[in-house]
Fold these 4 entries.
Entry 1:
Amino acid sequence: MFKPWAHIQWFSMGAGVLALILLPSFVENDEIRKWMDILMVAILATSWNFIGGLTGYPSFAPAAFFGLGAYTTAILMNAGFNFFITLGIGACLGALVALALGVPILRLRGHYFAIATFGVAEFFRELADNLRITGGGDGINLPQITGGPDYFTRFFYFSMLGVAVLAVLTQYFVTRHRLGYGLVAIRENEDAAAMTGVDTTKYKIIAFVLSSIFPAMGGGVYAYRAAFLEPIDVFDVMFSIKAIVMSMLGGVGTVMGPLVGAVMMEYLSDYLWGAFTEFHSAFLGIIIVLVVLFIPRGLMTLSQEVKSRGWGSLGLILKSNIQRFKV
Amino acid sequence: MSETLLEGRGVTKRFGGLTAVSAVDFTVRKGEILGVIGPNGAGKTTLLNCITGLDPANEGEILFHGERIETMKPHSITRMGVARTFQIVQPFAGLAVRENVVMGALFGSQKSKKEVKRAQELADEMLAFVGLSDKSAQLASQLTLAERKRLEFAKSLATEPEVLLLDEVNAGLNTTEIENAISLIHKVREQGVTILVIEHLMKVITDLSDRVVVLHHGEKIAEGLPSEVTSDEQVIKAYLGEKYVAMMKKLAEES
Amino acid sequence: MVYAQILINSILLGGIYACIAVGFSLVWGVMNILNIMHGTFLMLGGYVTFWMFKLYGVDPFLSLPVSAVTMFCAGYVVQRGLINKIVRAPMFMSLILTFGLQLLVVRLAIYFFTGDFRSVQPSYAGFSIPLMGLSIPFVRVSIFVLGVVLTSILFWFMGHTRTGRAIRATRMDLDSAQLMGVDIGRIYAITYGIGAAAAATSGSLVSVGFAISPVSDVEFLSKSFIICTIGGLGNITGALAGGLILGLAENFGALYLGPGLQNAIGYVLLILVLFIKPSGLLGRKGFE
Ligand SMILES: Nc1ncnc2c1ncn2[C@@H]1O[C@H](COP(=O)(O)OP(=O)(O)OP(=O)(O)O)[C@@H](O)[C@H]1O
Ligand SMILES: [Mg+2]
């Protein structure tokens, strides 16, 4: 049977990846760097979607795994390991830690789960601040990459792109596999999911592990590029927040949503207030408030609604969004 | 007499000081419809929660096909072939009706591990069976109560159970809806599924069941054929209170 | 002797912690909102006291009512105008919304107040009361006493006034409270306002004994997380117990493990309690 939808999706995904691969051939290093940042946030958002979007467990752990990956790469590269091998080890370490933490943490629900994940990230930061192996609060240097700016800008860009593609592809397959269905069932009603035969404990842990692997790898790339790490830079709750907000902006629980959200947000913010770097977080705050109030189900859903009801109804849709949950 | 499929021995469940289910023995035989009745708070739902592992029993054994299941996790019990519906319906509210049923088909009985496509086909069959085909694209949250109860049915049937535990599938429905539900239950039994049905309405239980178990304050106070149980004085007392029994006796004497 | 001194310090610290957490606990318990703005209100309250002292020489303990009233109003408006719009959405939405507000307000605070740490230094700042060879800092004792008194007033209010009872009714069951004619929107706004006022008061107290800056809000917020998780939600004993336990753990932890890990201890405690008893040591079951 011919299913045009599936083909269109594959086609647009392929086209998108191709465009991103070709991008460095056409633009300046500055622009490449900007896209590298977009990809980094996209990795975080897509990964958050496994646990927060599909499974419905609001995790604040992305920063924990991002920092874990960053420090893994820093420490191992200083010990003479190859960069890509450190990414692999970082991913494995992230997965292991997620597994170990997931067993107890995922028994919690709601706010308690959110706080526990937040506590984990903060605890990691305190550790990094105090351990000798991480250089403590003074931070840690990494080996400098050799080669000219043209080379290393592209090197980091393609490393980031590789991780991002991996994350999105994984997400794509998960949502089409029984695993994805099981996660959504847990989000919608955990007891009912168990009663239909979903091994909820196992599935939640898988989702948590998946959501930790790619941030750890992204953290590794970030570390090598930054060449210097401080605990407060990488175990920054803002990484978690960005992951969450980008997912929401694009559409929680959808494959492309987090990606769309990350691109829109980073790009728009650059145009609108690129000049006011100092107020970046204030603008992010305003965006968060607006998204939560007016487009809580994300741009992807909004665009579908607008498509089916026409642009004229945009105001009505936004108005009904803000009235849905009021008292 | 046919073989025993599901069996409980001394099943006890306490909530703090309250014993909601107290040393209850029961057997469900292959192919039958067993009715469980009892007034509000008798412990019927709690008994189902023990059987399905959602709220495990404190004491006693529960056997399915002779295998102990009382310490198993809910999903394992479901996969062995025990399905249930909830008294307070528990749909995946944000998903389409069809998707709700797909979940049951995907994760239920593991005799044939299904992939998404096969599960969707099975879900469509189940929706046709319960008469919800025309609603399959709607959100579960948009259904009426009667439809949600049927969805609950389809969802649990999609797990391909050997035993189906039904918790008050008729509560809140009108007479026609109840008749439909009853004929649906009969249809399910004809497919070879064994059924344990919890009911409030005497009338329904006598129409439906082969045997009846009566719970009161967590204890089993009677068991037998519907006709035997409904004329049992203790049962009538439990249901309607002492006064009513005295009144009936007086009426009988007068006539 | 050193133990006795640490014990006293811990208790004084614990009392302040309890006071810091109480508004957070109220908002969480009644509306199921994890209020990220809590630390922000606290910080703003501290600045009210700081500026009133710096500009007009008002004694910090006298500016408490000003800081409480201004932040009550701010909180009322925030809840009425924004949070009420999404209060029935999945709980996670209100968390993110208050986070967005926090980012905005903290950024503005840095702009207006600079990121420097400030502390109110009244003439009696250095006094301490000698007692059986121990030294008990006067300011901290006053903060402790005031904190406990204000917290008790809050709980008296919750139990014995019309508004307090309405708040508790909505916490039990939103829909039936609405049916009984309670104006939920208003009650929620008042509750949030009280939470903000409690935060601001403790912020004012903290600005005397400690130092504040616009970014220290996160620190106080995490303390509130930890205290409420340890003690459980929605009761004064829980907040007090949580505060004391945290104060003791931090001070004795610093003694044995070195001062660097003082904050880490709180998080370890938080995670341990969540694993052992997710509803908090003194909390009831049933709240999410
Ligand atoms: N989770 C629980 N915690 C405490 N008590 C409970 C719990 N679940 C049920 N109970 C109590 O156990 C008793 C039995 O309840 P159960 O729901 O099993 O009754 P039921 O027979 O299903 O009644 P109904 O006809 O109203 O559905 C009741 O007194 C109820 O209050
Ligand atoms: Mg019941």
Entry 2:
Amino acid sequence: MNDIAPKTADLHLSRRGFLAGSAAAAGALVIGFDGSGALAKADAAQSDATLTVNPFVSISPDGIVTVVIKHFEMGQGTTTGLATLVAEELDADWEQVEAVYAPADDTKYANLLLGAQGTGGSTAIANSYEQYRKAGAAARALIVEAAAKSWRVDAAEISIEKGVLSAGTRSGTFDAFVPLALGLTPPEEPRLKDPSEFRLTGDPTLRRKDGRAKTDGSALFALDIRRENMVRAVIARPPKVGATLSSLDDGEAKAVRGVLAVIETPRGVAVVAESTWAAIKGRDALSIEWDETDAETRSTEAIIAEHKAALDAPGVAARNDGDADAALADAARTVEAEFVFPYLAHAPMEPLNCVIAYDGQSAQVWDGCQFPALAKPTIAAILGLEPEKVSIETVLAGGSFGRRATPTSDYHAEAAMVVKALSETELKGRPVQLVWTREDDLTGRYYRPLYVQRVTAGIDAEGAPLAYRHKLAGQSILIGTFFEEMLVKDGIDSTSVEGANDLPYAIPNMRVDVRNMRSEAPVLWWRAVGHTHTAYSTELMLDMMAEAAGADPVDYRMKLLGDHPRHAGVLKLAAEKAGWGEPVGPGRGRGVALHKSFNSYVALVAEVTATEGVVKIDRVVCAVDCGRVINPDIVVAQMEGGIGYGIGAAMRNEITLTDGEVDQRNFPDYEPLRITDMPKIEVHIVASDEAPTGVGEPGTPPAAPALANAIFAATGQRIFELPMTKAGVSFA
Amino acid sequence: MAFQLSINGETRSVDADDDTPLLWAIRDNLNLTGTKFGCGVAACGACTVLIDGVPTRSCVTTIDSVEGEVTTIEAVSGPVADAVQTAWRDLDVAQCGYCQSGQIIQAIGLLTETPKPTDDDIDAAMAGNVCRCATYMRIRAAIHAAAASLEA
């Protein structure tokens, strides 16, 4: 069998029509930053060692610009965005720019906001904006200097447009100046463009670099990696967290044609086979008994009841302005609601998987790797290797929504455990592709945590807010992980209370406190993390306060946003574009929600039609302020997708447990948003010169509360428990 | 046992058990990886291929039941396929892209049967194809754009 993925880093992400030839040719001019952040340059022809200056940009002898992308691509558009930043400053033609993914190397490719190599928190553009522009500008300076020497003109006389340099009557393309530029030193602080000079940044017609490969079947995901002699592995994991293997009969499994081995790992029983289907069949044929003595055996109802009871006990304050309890006692009116948010699975389209090839000395990994900084040492430790002996080739990820980044690198660890076990058998040396099925994905934990929250608000006789009391109970994502020391302060995991303790509305007395619930089952960030529940409770409460005050929901919010012009800006824009205040017609309703997350501001107005209790989501109008926009069409796409992800879950998704076992097994039990559910979404972007901020997650938090507020407007029903189907809402 | 599969204009021999889903024969035996595994129970459409031009879920189609010509994303061709793939690129439908092979195959099937689909036609034809990135608005728009380009 031939390897069909000989060079997965070169994803053929752009058309080669602009210039013939290969970007991999020797002699490429490579520019980047060394470990100290200083600009450095190396001649790629010299040796691989010189290339370890960590290039972000290279230009091949035939003029192809290769941008090394330090983040992984899960669909959010980072590949295109980072390539744009370089192409912009270099004045390259978009068609001559190619993108490849960086190797796992924290010292060179760290996320500057996270301090290690990884993608998350909608930070990719925010942390890379200056870095990638500088890398492109340095490349430009070198090419210009080389051209100036070649043409014997002043560098200031040279201009570049779409990859063509010109000065007076002379013109030339990058390839002509690469040889001369190899001997030049790039400037340490290259001049960056004034935004008024931008040509590619903000261009809505610029197409994605991965658009072609994703429409002809050539895009490579980790599940598509094929290596010579590769085996597949699936794992039978205990259905209850904390259960251990009691007895195993693998006779029937081993009789399945293609099954090569059945091995016990700390995570469960792995079936290793020549093909994925043989591995799945083999697993089905296993006879296993689990020892559930120490297993988590609670059902969802019991867990919710414990959370509700915890709300009556004191919590750890995450915000405490004035005296909320005293002010509530003085309020003319109070409104109160108790919210229940279920566990949610991420369910990315590509189930978790990765490939590890281990020869006893070093390991090569292929993965849609969200957090190389964690995966690399995890795999190394299991295999007994120094981390530098593990190299990770990052390939495309078929979605993540947070699932591919766990503090434990769970699926990488599983694959490494299988590889380690096989290394002591006759199967040693054979690359292993660990595959999760959809059932593994939905039952495999790492859910968005379940939360119960109680919010009580008090208003005065004129309807103005006096007090706001927000109690949360839920399992912290970070406590108990190695992130705890770094990110949990005084018992407050910021991901538990974000969006609640930074509520922008002017309310004189406010207290937000949290109770950290414990469980053996790990929980995880799910697209927008804590904001996924706090946006819902806060924005429903604001609507209820407006109702109690007899005020319009948009007007009421607007009056409380005096110190927050960007919040107010998106709210006003969304309301205008949605025709807020105009009649909607019988049976219809409009609802608003406003939420800031990942430093971006999003306001949504949802419109629904309710016919005899059946709700149809007609339209969602979105206004977003994410600072300077690199690619407007990708911002629009992320808002569309983020809103869809939020409403899909809110409508009908929940993970529930019966005696500790997950009830949902595959998509029919966890019915995803479908095209028939998708409303028309209109996205309006606020023009801004502020620094660019996140777009992958901020569309999600306001989606569910906007929908809930619209359903209230249409039907009079407030929905305090998600998913909405549980509250009796039916959707068309 | 060995099965003779007509796929992408060739006849290929696949040595597999007769209950092997066509999906795994395509992906693991023939190493055509454009056809994706999403659920294994025909609930997401990521595995969709054409069999004699009809979109079919390969994850629940056992290899011993396959009769006719199988076409995967790697080999779709002709005016309808060109129009669909071009529209998908022009509108940048794909985000993560994992489901899009199946979406495109399903859309080719729709436009072959119904050259000028309404929104309701599109919803009916595409409802079985899940996209967790929720690119549905663009899928709808791209199908309309492809239909318009075929009519022109």
Entry 3:
Amino acid sequence: MALAILFWLLVWQVASLVIGQELFLPSPLAVLRALFSMVQEQVFWLSVGNSLLRIGLGFLLGLAAGVLLASFSVAFSLVDTLLRPLMLLVRSTPVASFIILALVWVNSRYLSTFISFLMVLPVIYSGTYAGLRAADKSLLEMAAVFHVGFWRRMRAIYLPALRPFLLSSCELALGMSWKSGVAAEVIGLPVGTIGERLYQAKIYLMMPELFAWTLVIILLSGLFGKLIIQGLKMAAKNLSGEGAPE
Amino acid sequence: MRDIVLNEVTKAYGEQTVLREFTARFKAGEVSALLGPSGAGKTTIARLVLGLERPDAGTISGADVRCSCVFQEDRLCPGLTAEANVQLVLPHAQWPRVAEALRELGFTKEDAQKQAQYLSGGQKRRVALVRAVEAQGELLVLDEAFKGLDEENREKAVEYVKRGRGGRTLLLITHDPREAETFGAKSMYVPPGEKVWGGGEETRGEVDNNSERSSS
Ligand SMILES: Nc1ncnc2c1ncn2[C@@H]1O[C@H](COP(=O)(O)OP(=O)(O)O)[C@@H](O)[C@H]1O
Ligand SMILES: [Mg+2]
């Protein structure tokens, strides 16, 4: 893996040397230099903080709403019937349409929160739905015969079934929330965000900065994702109690 | 407690009629055994009594009580320990006695703390048995509960069930007539196919006590 990355960095360096046009393809070294000067400015951390908070908030809201709505759908078939077309609609609407709509409807400040929420929601919803549905029917029957209570049933039967589904849909949703969130910022240009920085890098043709910001987004999205997945794994472990039902 | 009475119960799965006008009485507080070859419909009778299936015709009375059972499959939560699987069905106050019961059936402390998915077949069976016996209820249904246990463990388990049953009605499903005998059970034979059980008026509503019919 490390070797493969090194290989592609070399390819990149050679390509940029061959092209010899910083404007077209900056060299890895130029990008690194740009990154170093960027992190020394206050506006860098401000933009990172703003975007992280807003996109992260959108993700968490989408996660919570997705899990909740899917649980209701599994429990009540009426909710299931009602939500099905809505989720399909949200899932198949192009991000761009949502961004334009959101600009009309909501403050551009929380544009990326809204967009990241909408991208995450249907993914988490269908993952949770499938996970809860995958709960072992024979164990549920056992729980019914023995009058096992709601929370114990959740922990002992539903949670273990849900876990792998929820984790994989979270991983999917995490990438989507960052990509769509930053795209929304580039279009809506809320003040002091990564999207605004990206846009400025574009209009002033600061290619090394553009690349550096891209790198920052990838790293942020990766770190945020690690944190969320780790948190979920720990929560699941604590809830299921590794054995004890209470 | 009331007797559990199945009266002319008919049950079909799709095209296949498993029980046709099946009639039987399981006496309250006593042990009744259902014997018969595989596929005869014993598990189906258990599921009807437990309220997990509805009869297509006929009635079941006296079964609307709290039940516990050993399913034909173990039905343990794979990620929970042996002990936690039993605790799952018990109120908090009764948890302490779970360890004791497991030890009685030959579980070491370590084995009682193993997740069910890592237990041997015989161990799983015994956990399911402890779960059924320790749980509350007026009716205990054991569907081939002693299957797959070696001689020593089987004896321990039978003793444990006899003692742990208390005054509960016990419905014992088995292939083995001797097992029914050790429980002093009233045995009835469930014939394979769609045969009408009972037939004559005089036997209807009674448990067949003729264990010769049970040698399949
Ligand atoms: N859920 C079901 N769907 C279809 N067929 C079933 C189902 N449950 C049982 N059967 C059929 O009913 C018959 C009786 O099954 P069962 O009651 O399990 O017999 P036994 O416990 O005596 O071996 C079998 O032929 C079985 O295949
Ligand atoms: Mg059976």
Entry 4:
Amino acid sequence: MSTLDLTRCTAVQLAELLGTRTVSAREVAQAHLDRIAAVDGDIHAFLHVDAAGALAAADAVDADRAADRPLGPLAGVPLALKDVLTMRDVPTTCGSRILEGWRPPYDATVTRRLREAGIVILGKTNMDEFAMGSSTEHSAYGPTRNPWALDRIPGGSGGGSAAALAAFEAPLAIGTDTGGSIRQPAAVTGTVGVKPTYGAVSRYGLVALASSLDQAGPCARTVLDTAMLHQVIAGHDPMDSTSLTDPVPDVVAAAKSGDISGVRIGLVRELGGEGYQAGVQERFAEAVAVLERLGADVVEVSCPSFEHALAAYYLILPSEASSNLAKFDGIRYGLRVGDDGRRSVEEVMSLTREAGFGAEVKRRIMLGTYALSSGYYDAYYGSAQKVRTLIQRDFTAAFAQADVLISPTAPTTAFRLGEKLDDPLAMYLNDVATIPVNLAGNAAMSLPIGLAAEDGLPVGLQVIAPAMADDRLYRVGAALEQALYDRWGGLLIEEVPAR
Amino acid sequence: MSQATMELMDFDEAMARFDPVLGLEVHVELSTATKMFCGCPTTFGAEPNTQVCPVCLGLPGALPALNRMGVESAMRIGLALHCEVAEWCRFARKNYFYPDMPKNFQTSQYDEPICSDGWIDVDYDTPEGRRTFRVGIERAHMEEDTGKNVHLGGATGRIHGADYSLVDYNRAGIPLIEIVTKPIEGAGRYAPEVARAYVSALRDLLRALEVSDVRMEQGSLRCDVNVSLRPSADAPFGTRSETKNVNSLRSVERSVRYEIGRQAALLAGGGRVVQETRHWHEDTGLTTSGRSKEEAEDYRYFPEPDLVPIAPSREWVEALRATLPENPAARRNRLAAAWGIGELEMSTVVNAGALDLVEATIAAGADQAAARKWWTGELARVARERGVELRDLAITPAQVAEVEALVQAGTVNDKLARQVIEGVLAGEGGPGEVVAARGLAVVSDDGPLLAAIDDALAAQPDVAEKIRGGKVQAAGAIVGAVMKATRGQADAARVRELIFQRLGVEA
Ligand SMILES: [Zn+2]
């Protein structure tokens, strides 16, 4: 197999090679570990590489295969896990100093499902601290760089997972999406990412940012790979009370079908136009034309409440985050500062949080604490919940006219590192198109639709489906991906600069 | 502790000038097998931090999963308190920082409790006889308990002055039900008694429901007492104080009495009552100032996003209603009438925790007086001595009835019967076996007894003479000597009869 670069293969291709025993899981894992060693100094997608654990998991798959024991379809395929999900005995930092050195004593349900499927976890990927950010610059351990251009951000908060895919360090990755943290990084790195329906994937072991918005999801370089991973991680979990009991839609079959003739596609009027980069708008218009040519019925829909989504989101998220992040106090695990035997426990808690949290985290904790305060609750948290209801109604009305909705995933291509670091509002605007989906609990995908003319950087298209209709994302995504593949003679990701 | 020398107004004077209003908040630890949101056991007294998991330790990423038994217990308590069970309710987070709270918020209920608007009738004694007072119930809601701080070093065992502190999270996440009364008005001078009677009645009810151990000394029932005074019954409520952790029935009564005296002295002196939490000191019988509400924390309640709302179906509610036991007060009255005893005797039985046991002993054939005597006398003494609950003694009501039957048959006397019980408790077998094994049967053959009597009369001729002369009470000395000679295994009444026969005296 010396001529084949295993790191350039899709997950489906690797599964095929493994299934036919053309390569071993150890060879696949080693190839990816070598690739990480070669390029991650530049990219910094990983916070922790678990080489020993990965090779041990690969060997176990090889042993099972040798013994003809039943294996899942992705057994032996490597994956990069966002550092916000717990993995037993492997450091989990959430990109924060406050969790430095913490090794969880338990696996997240997602982690357990990955292990049970024989997927080989290479390590933990970089992220904005506690998933707060759109650039991965808010990681306490330094930023991740975009493989398309090292001076550009890889999106956030899951920039590490997206960059690992785009740099061919892993064919599969797990992200989490609270307001766009899977989809926006996918868009700016030319990869595919899905935020499943809220409750479709267990949150047990996902270190919470905003409990009512957080959702883990699959990331990959193709729609079918993403669907295969989706199938592994989705499903009911009694450990998560908000986990859905409904059966998981057959997303793999949908990704293999790719037939969208007669599918009604709604263009959301409020998500596009002013504020969107010209190159993004051009690629998006082209993609719409492709979808029409494939037989879809494209209609325009309006969701007037979306204009309040960002404001509502920045009340609900900080409110829940201020409570979720209260547990990081230095008493039980992680960082502890100022415990000199003289200071009171309150002082130690305060000093620990002062030293352990970054500026963006503190900003949101303060916003949330304020919004929940007695006397302000109704005006802030209460009003935000009402907006949330209005947004859900807008979606319901839109889905009466269309089977899926589409928009550009992000208003711009990847911006430069540092460009928006001092302007939180500009940073927040990056998620204007993705946030309404989290507020409503729907499912959405981002997939690459080309490079913007002005900067040569990837542009993403967002497909939105009603709750529990995640399969529609894959049907539409696969059709569009195939049409673009035919036009370009390959995947867009193959255009990423070689290193 | 400047309040330690706080002036008190005499209770009668306070009652002449003010009208007290009470409010009680009772926290009950449920005796479910597992915690409220995880599968950890709830056993009391385990090694610190051995009954914990990622969920109740609040580890990053862990999520709560609701214990259905906890919800059922909450609903049964509410139903027994004549509350409405909400058609829809949910949990809320109460946010504050404290090292014994793993998440730095407590999962509780706020404005949407599972049960609300009920009542309970409580009986209390006055010099004019027994009275009944209806206490309104505002709400009963579900929450989780916190861990426990242990402060080490220093003199007081309190956080101030301690060298360091340890936290035991075994208790964290144990299900709690908080039961809050409506303002208790109109109790007047009997407010302290009503407060005590309420907690006592609630404890009986919870015990009958078998939802909690209700052991105040172990903290499975904890009580906060709010007291305020107003000039008259038609005046608006005064400012209240909240006395925390009043953990015995006696202390509930005493702390109310103390707060009435303290607040009355303050108000009469032109001062004002500060809205604050106060600490009850069992040893001195005082309350001291804790945290003032004016500097109290804002708990920033909001709906718990990690748990889905609870919407108990009406079928579920009715099914639970059907499992409710007889109301304890009604049961007491019914049994008192059946046994033909008064309130005082009944209180002795109930306070000893012996009601079920006495009832079962009677059902096993003993008469009511004997059943009560054994359980509230000898057995209660043993339980106290051993520091256990009466029902935890290693003797069954049927065995107590059997002991009593042996007494009635004259096989053993009272003193021997106590030895039989001692044997049963020591695991030597049932009463019959103990009698046989220890050779405890009363000497009932008159032959050996007459010999012993003759010996005793011969040894004490002066006593014999007195008896002959009609001083029958002098026979006690001879009975004593005979009992001594037979090592207690004689029926004292029979000995007495035989003495009089021997001396030809009409007893
Ligand atoms: Zn637990």
